[in-house]
Design goal:
Blueprint: E1 2-6, E2 16-19, E3 29-38, H1 41-48, E4 59-60, E5 65-72, E6 86-89, E7 99-103, E8 108-109, H2 116-136, E9 144-147, H3 153-164, E10 168-173, H4 176-184, E11 189-192, H5 197-204, E12 209-214, H6 220-226, E13 227-235, H7 248-253, E14 257-260, H8 270-285, E15 293-298, H9 302-310, E16 317-321
Parallel strand pairs: 9-10, 9-12, 10-11, 12-13, 13-14, 15-16
Antiparallel strand pairs: 1-2, 1-4, 3-5, 3-7, 3-16, 5-6, 6-8
Helix pairs in contact: 2-3
Length: 322
Amino acid sequence: MHALTFSRFGGPEVLEWTRLPDPVHAPGTALVRTRCVGLNFADVYRRQGRYHLAGSPPWIAGYEAAGEIVALHAGDAARGLAVGQRVAFADSPYANAELVAVPLDKLIVLPGDIDFDTAAALLLQGLTAQYLLADSHRVQAGERLLVHAAAGGVGLLLVQLARAAGAEVIALASSESKRAAALAAGAAHAVATGDGWVDRVRALAPEGVDVVYDSIGATLADSLALARTGGTVVFYGMAGGDPSPVDPRLLMDRSLTLTGGDLWNVLNSAAQRQQRADQLFAAVRAGALRVEIAARIPLRDGASGHALLEGRGTAGKVLLVP
């Protein structure tokens, strides 16, 4: 098989299209032929050496893909799985390859009306948005939210789900087209990032917002400043760099809540994965959730996908196609 690999840390140029042996198909796993792979900032972080990596180089990045089962051990049939079954996964490594050995409990069965592109564009970021709104902070109707990177893969889904829950969203986005995408997704206001963005948000919410969803990291101090007294900041990413340390006295003085958002603390069983994914599929089916695909790029040209994602010029999900 072929895979998109890297053997040293650095920019997109370290990625290589490499021929490797087919993965070992051990009992308890299914061999999946990928048809569409989701590209995420976690893949960028790993390529840069900022996230943990298992094994030795060449490393294969990627945790999210959709495809079909091509091999399954006798006696391993579970949850109706069979060769030819259309499946996806959001938290199993080595997805940037033509073939992936995936533990059975990581597989999510796809209904007939959810195609590979939709699944690979939706699952990791949709499950993240769902978790952030239901678990990190249970959003209530009438709350005012500030969403960083609101036109990104998670951001657009977060805006839609928050709006469906009755919340008002102030969206932060860097370009006019991204702000238009956030407004189309249901944001009440779209604010330009760059110099003066804090003042622009403050003009819309003089008393502060109820909740800030911060995936940038370096903006965490500003997010805390924009939360109302008694408000909440949900920190769930570092796309703009690591945050500065937070003085707990600040949290005490303004009765603020600072919480982290890590999907893997709740996505801990096959039943949880399928149940939460089915809720997302139902939202897509009902028209309450629209999946935006920014680009479809051949997996062998994954370096251009990484560059596109890092350039922050896209609204929606970047997909890599084997």
